[in-house]
From TrEMBL:
SUPFAM superfamilies: Glucocorticoid receptor-like (DNA-binding domain) (SSF57716), N-terminal domain of MutM-like DNA repair proteins (SSF81624), S13-like H2TH domain (SSF46946). SMART domains: Fapy_DNA_glyco (SM00898), H2TH (SM01232). The keyword Aminoacyl-tRNA synthetase does not apply. Its cofactor is Zn(2+). Belongs to the FPG family. One of its GO terms (molecular function) is class I DNA-(apurinic or apyrimidinic site) endonuclease activity. Residues 2-113 form the Formamidopyrimidine-DNA glycosylase catalytic domain. This is Formamidopyrimidine-DNA glycosylase. Residues 224-258 form the FPG-type domain. It comes from Gandjariella thermophila. It catalyses: Hydrolysis of DNA containing ring-opened 7-methylguanine residues, releasing 2,6-diamino-4-hydroxy-5-(N-methyl)formamidopyrimidine; 2'-deoxyribonucleotide-(2'-deoxyribose 5'-phosphate)-2'-deoxyribonucleotide-DNA = a 3'-end 2'-deoxyribonucleotide-(2,3-dehydro-2,3-deoxyribose 5'-phosphate)-DNA + a 5'-end 5'-phospho-2'-deoxyribonucleoside-DNA + H(+). GO terms for biological process: base-excision repair. Keywords: DNA damage, DNA repair, DNA-binding, Glycosidase, Hydrolase, Lyase, Metal-binding, Multifunctional enzyme, Zinc, Zinc-finger.
Amino acid sequence: MPELPDVEGFRRVLAEHAVDARVRGVDVTDTGVLRGTTPAALDRALAGQRFTEPRRHGKWLLAGTGGPTVVMHFGMTGSLLWCAGDEPRHPHDRVIFRLDRGELRFRDSRKLQGIRLAENDDAVDRLLADTGPDALSIGRGEFDALLTGARRRIKALLTDQSALAGLGNLLADELLWRVGVHPARPAGELSEDERARLYDEMRRVLRAAVRAGRVPPREGWLTGVRDERDAPCPRCGGPLERTRTAGRSTVWCPRCQPR
DNA sequence: TTGCATGTTCCGGA
DNA sequence: GTCCGGAACATGCA
């Protein structure tokens, strides 16, 4: 279910367990998650290398070695786990990085995204060339400039990874609900005050979610009720509205978020 | 059995 | 060119 906070959690898994560990080898049990590389190329590039401090940009996780970098994207169902012992492999463990202290496992059922191999930092830059600024790093001024003059719907803009990297469907709904902005309003139509509050809420929600390592279904948040049929708005108690556009579900409160 | 799922990409139409 | 919705990708779950 990865949005920025989940990927940040996976980054911590790498940072805690894999940094400085030597890679013994890479096992690929399903090539369906490899993008532009092969099991042999992955193993050849990584065996003997040591992971350096991992980085995250938006929903991308970058596991560098000083040489090649493993570039991971988790789609909707991916995750990264550390297994120190000999826990049996899960059927969805598609790629296993065998390190000298244990295993790092890329687990993913739907295989909507996967693992790429960047030979050097230039190749990493090329992979991320179309990705916008990270939602946790973007400054207030840059965020403001992004929205000002944009004619697109605010939700479409917030979830467009080439505009702003890291927010997904749940986070976008959560933020707009908190700020009281209807998801279909043109981004450029938001007031100075709405833009300011949206930025502040984005930072607040992201910080809390990063601490949890996921987008938490928390009481008092929209996330806490969005999966319940007929659940009332946690703020005003009124009925929530639900629609689908382009395959994405949208939940909002027509009272708190007028058109 | 059918519909739905927190992601991205590609395509056609307005 | 811009924006939007739908389909596709592959799989599990209610």
